[in-house]
Q: What sequence folds into this?
């Protein structure tokens, strides 16, 4: 389980640049994520937060620079080595991305079925445990179309956790949720991080969430086309002298 | 946390205090649990007391914890846990136990066979009723739009005419030519025995103009356009765009359905005509290989084909177009939620469209017979 070396780096992003059709989304982005922390990528709409996340999980190839996840270059791995690394990360997509024709329990069983040789009974039990962990025991037999947005996000987290990965990536966990549901999700993230020692990389622009869950964060900016801040979000709120960072944390209108 | 977490999992079984002791070694992760599952269950069955010795376990994850708790249940819910000293692992087991102990929802029992038949019949009847309701809504919408034709968006109509009509020409010509060719060629084999090959043009011509032209054009329209209508409107329904239109005080029937219905009705006679002509060309090609000059074929066609064969076929085609458009739009607007809804709507549009044109064709056959056409 989690080795107690708090400073161990599990993700290293070096001088990353993202470009689409010659248009630069961001460049010179470098940071490290340490084991067991909740790391938040924040920024306004359109600054490339989700794009950065998709680079970190190896979905987009970097235009420049590289990404190391658990000591492996996720942007260069191929074949079986890549699959082995992907088993050790879990992703919750913005809208849950649950498979619409399968029940929640079946959704969680998909990675178990694909990547382990557990018998059907064991898969069903693990799915039950995961749904119980996110508080969805009652909804195991329901289809994604029959549940609310907050439930879909929690089910998305349960599916991402099916294989007990050491790193979970969450894309906008609180987007489109009411404050109470959103706070519940934040509490769940903290609980999982504390109890399982899971490292979280969370993309969000919800101020409340950032302050509630984030151990460290980086902030991206559309104008600067890159990182404009890095550190503890509570300290950034108090101490940053970057006007964009200040405006973001204080919900001010930027002149 | 499975990768590289120590040696392959194994169990040692022994007896202790009249019961059984299972000593686990190695990584009890998903792979380990999968390997040991049946062996461990066999060993634990009915063992009282059961001792789970975990001193040799190097790693444990949810799957491993599930296995241990399952063993406990196998032994009648009582087991002595030994050697699980690391606090996070204890917490993991307790959390897994709590999650497994939560009550599970009960599923409704499946209906008996008769019940399923009844449900299917009821659904079918409801579907038919909704289709008729939709036809009524479309008629009312059309009636409302007649005095204010500018409310029908011309650009939308032109787009649908292009997509349903012009872009279907290639497929229609290809299909028509091949059908003419095949019909002529296949009928030439028996006709030759009677020296009646000269009647092939009239046979193919009448079949095409009266029946096959409109029918095949209808199949093309149902496959290409009916499904597209259903998918487009279905996606709009799923995205709540239809609700948005309604709330803006815009009737989706006038805004979305009427241009599509009008386009389907207008293009169908044209498609049927294209189908007829290319079919006749295909037939002509076969006739020329059989040694008949074009003039003989044309003479034969002029002798046998009447204008009302053509007009009857083309007006049938227009009605088919209306039916396909109605079924397609209705399937789209009635789509449920979720990603499967759009696929289901497209399937329903094609199947429903083809069934509708075949049924209508039967009605037309009776009608034309009564009219003496």
A:
């Amino acid at each position: 389980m989690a080795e107690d070396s708090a400073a161990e780096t599990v993700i290293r992003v070096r001088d990353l640049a993202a470009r689409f059709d010659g248009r630069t989304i961001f460049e010179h982005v470098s940071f490290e994520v340490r084991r067991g922390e909740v790391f938040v990528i924040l920024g306004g709409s359109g600054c490339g937060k989700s794009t950065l996340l998709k680079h970190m999980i190896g979905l987009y190839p970097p235009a420049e620079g590289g990404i190391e996840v658990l000591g492996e270059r996720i942007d260069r791995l191929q074949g079986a080595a890549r699959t082995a690394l992907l088993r050790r990360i879990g992703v919750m997509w913005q809208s849950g991305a649950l498979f619409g024709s399968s029940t929640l329990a079946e959704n969680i069983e998909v990675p178990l079925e694909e990547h382990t040789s557990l018998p059907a009974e064991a898969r069903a039990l693990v799915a039950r445990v995961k749904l119980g962990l996110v508080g969805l025991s009652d909804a195991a037999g329901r289809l994604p179309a029959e549940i609310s947005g907050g439930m879909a996000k929690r089910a998305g987290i349960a599916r991402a956790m099916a294989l007990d990965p050491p790193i979970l990536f969450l894309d906008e966990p609180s987007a489109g949720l009411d404050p109470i549901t959103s706070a519940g999700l934040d509490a769940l993230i903290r609980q999982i991080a504390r109890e399982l020692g899971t490292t979280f990389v969370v993309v969000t622009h919800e101020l409340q969430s950032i302050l509630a869950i984030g151990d460290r964060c980086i902030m991206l900016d559309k104008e600067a086309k890159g990182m404009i801040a890095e550190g503890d979000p509570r300290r950034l709120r108090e101490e940053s002298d970057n006007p964009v960072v200040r405006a973001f944390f204080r919900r001010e209108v930027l002149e | 946390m499975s990768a590289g977490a120590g040696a392959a999992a194994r169990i040692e079984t022994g007896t202790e205090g009249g019961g059984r002791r299972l000593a686990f070694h190695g990584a009890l992760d998903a792979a380990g649990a999968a390997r040991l599952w049946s062996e461990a269950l066999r060993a634990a069955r009915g063992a009282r007391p059961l001792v789970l010795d975990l001193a040799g376990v190097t790693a444990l994850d949810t799957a491993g914890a599930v296995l241990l708790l399952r063993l406990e249940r196998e032994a009648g819910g009582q087991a002595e846990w030994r050697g699980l000293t690391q606090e996070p692992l204890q917490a993991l087991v307790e959390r897994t136990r709590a999650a497994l102990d939560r009550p599970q929802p009960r599923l409704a029992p499946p209906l008996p066979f008769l019940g399923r038949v009844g449900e299917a019949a009821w659904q079918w009847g409801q579907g038919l009723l909704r289709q008729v309701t939709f036809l009524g809504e479309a008629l009312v919408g059309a009636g409302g739009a007649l005095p204010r034709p500018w409310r029908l968006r011309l650009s939308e109509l032109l787009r649908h005419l292009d997509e349903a009509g012009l872009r279907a020409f290639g497929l229609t010509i290809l299909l028509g030519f091949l059908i003419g060719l095949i019909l002529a060629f296949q009928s030439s084999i028996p006709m030759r025995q009677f020296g009646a090959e000269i009647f092939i043009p009239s046979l193919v011509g009448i079949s095409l103009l009266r029946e096959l032209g409109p029918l095949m054009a209808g199949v093309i329209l149902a496959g290409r356009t009916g499904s597209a209508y259903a998918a487009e409107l279905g996606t709009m329904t799923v995205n709540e765009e239809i609700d948005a239109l309604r709330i803006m005080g815009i009737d989706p029937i006038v805004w979305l359905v009427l241009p599509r219905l009008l386009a389907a009705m207008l293009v169908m006679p044209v498609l049927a005509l294209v189908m007829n002509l290319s079919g006749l060309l295909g037939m002509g090609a076969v006739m020329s290989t059989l040694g008949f000059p074009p003039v003989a074929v044309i003479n034969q066609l002029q002798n046998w084909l009447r204008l009302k064969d053509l007009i009857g076929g083309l007006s049938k085609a227009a009605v088919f177009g209306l039916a396909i458009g109605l079924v397609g739009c209705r399937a789209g607007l009635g789509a449920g939620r979720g990603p499967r809804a759009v696929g289901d709507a497209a399937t329903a549009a094609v199947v429903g469209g083809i069934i509708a044109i075949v049924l209508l064709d039967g009605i037309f056959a009776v009608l034309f017979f009564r009219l003496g056409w």
About this structure: Confidence is low (pLDDT under 50) at residues 1-6 of chain B. The longest strand of chain B covers residues 50-60. Chain B has two domains: 2-101, 126-371. The CA atoms of residues 120 and 126 of chain B lie 10 Å apart.
